[in-house]
From TrEMBL:
SUPFAM superfamilies: UDP-Glycosyltransferase/glycogen phosphorylase. The keyword Ion transport does not apply. The keyword Transferase applies. Residues 187-343 form the Glycosyl transferase family domain. This is Glycosyltransferase. Its EC number is 2.4.-.-. Keywords: Glycosyltransferase, Transferase. Residues 21-175 form the Glycosyltransferase subfamily 4-like N-terminal domain.
């Protein structure tokens, strides 16, 4: 029998962390695959050292999706491929493995046998030595996949160099996870804007590679700092450091911490600017969500951000990662943010169309078909 995507079952595998970009891609992608009739199976790798990440992910799972949770007890867990294989033994349908994240990639490689295997590369963080070692192993492992998915053209160029002569790299951009972007745009148009305050929004992990602490240092040193209020959505290893910085610099009235928010959509109604002071990125889901909502972006020019943000048009780039550059960027924001908001609002609908779930699902299905044929 000739296998086609509609009679083969996609098995998505992920060791989730904080419910952020990669996690949102998987959760939203499951909906698209389900609605296309592909009956996906979700394998959730639960890190026993931090089981709450997997449990939070499980609670966020869309209805009608079967899931299996398997445990991983250590960073380099040689038993994980056996647990993964055991979880798949009772599958009556032929399956195709689709891994997300380096732990899932390596586990799938070690147990897959002749199963077709795709991997989506969401980018590297490399904020600890252990993670850098894992990412190095992951780069070598990707060469064994039927196909590797890059989430941006810029990422594909990087992978072309790192994985050469491997050449089975496809670009499938992340989809928009918001289902109410049009409603958000309408509510933004009707909001009562306080012209005395420029509302900034940060959405992401509180971890070194995301750059929130250096941004707070720039904000505290800015000559126009009194014009800004910052709302922070997220949690992570730097939470206590962020809280201490805010207290030490008497910024309690200027920065509001909300912690982790599972559905941030309502927070896109009020802000004037989304900040992305990341030191490295792929194609951030938050970036897509903001621009589809009509919110301009102030960012470091890393990853694929420049594929969506045009300098001084629908946002602004700091010249580099320094405090001085971000001070200058904040000054430019205070002078030009109205124009950026106007431009972002006019392009928001086209962003929503470009990153539709339907397009992501169609491209993913085509790649499944290629992997099956090969």
């Amino acid at each position: 029998m000739k296998l086609r995507p509609n009679n083969i079952r996609p098995v998505l595998v992920l060791a989730p962390g904080v419910l952020a970009g990669a996690e949102k891609v998987v959760l939203t992608g499951l909906v698209g695959l389900r609605d296309m009739g592909l009956n996906p199976l979700m394998i959730i790798i639960r890190e026993t050292r931090a089981p709450h990440f997997a449990e939070t992910f499980l609670k966020a799972m869309p209805t009608g999706i079967e899931s299996v949770m398997i445990d991983s007890t250590k960073a380099f867990d040689l038993q994980l491929p056996k647990r993964l294989k055991a979880a798949l033994l009772d599958q009556s349908s032929p399956i195709i493995l689709h891994s997300h994240g380096f732990k899932a990639l390596i586990a799938c490689y070690m147990m897959k046998g002749k199963l077709p295997h795709l991997h989506t590369h969401h980018g590297n963080t490399a904020h600890t030595l252990k993670v850098r070692i894992y990412e190095k192993i992951a780069m070598m492992t990707m060469k064994t996949c039927n196909h590797v998915i890059a989430v941006s053209h810029q990422m594909k160029q990087e992978l072309d160099q790192k994985l050469y002569p491997y050449n089975k790299i496809a670009v499938i951009e992340n989809m928009l996870s918001l289902t109410n972007a049009a409603k958000i745009r309408s509510e933004r148009a009707l909001r009562n804007k306080n012209e005395n305050t420029i509302e900034l929004l940060y959405v992401g992990r509180l971890s070194p590679e995301k750059g929130l602490l250096p941004f707070l240092e720039s904000l505290a040193a800015s000559a126009v700092k009194e014009r800004f209020h910052l709302t922070v959505l997220g949690d992570g290893v730097e939470r206590e450091l962020v809280e201490k910085f805010i207290v030490d610099h008497k910024m309690q009235n200027q920065v509001t911490l909300h912690g982790f928010v599972s559905d941030p959509s309502s927070f896109f109604i009020n802000p004037d600017i989304l900040i992305m002071p990341s030191l490295r990125e792929g194609l951030p889901m938050t970036l897509i969500e903001a621009l589809a909502s009509g919110v301009p972006v102030l960012a470091n020019n890393v990853g694929a951000i420049a594929s969506m943000v045009t300098h001084n048009t629908n946002g602004h780039f700091a010249k580099d990662f320094s405090t001085e550059s971000w001070n200058e960027a904040l000054l430019k924001t205070s002078e030009n943010y109205h124009e950026w908001m106007k431009n972002a609002a006019s392009a928001a609908e086209s962003v929503e169309e470009r990153f539709s779930l339907k397009k992501w699902t169609q491209k993913t299905r085509e790649l499944y078909d290629l992997a099956i044929k090969s």
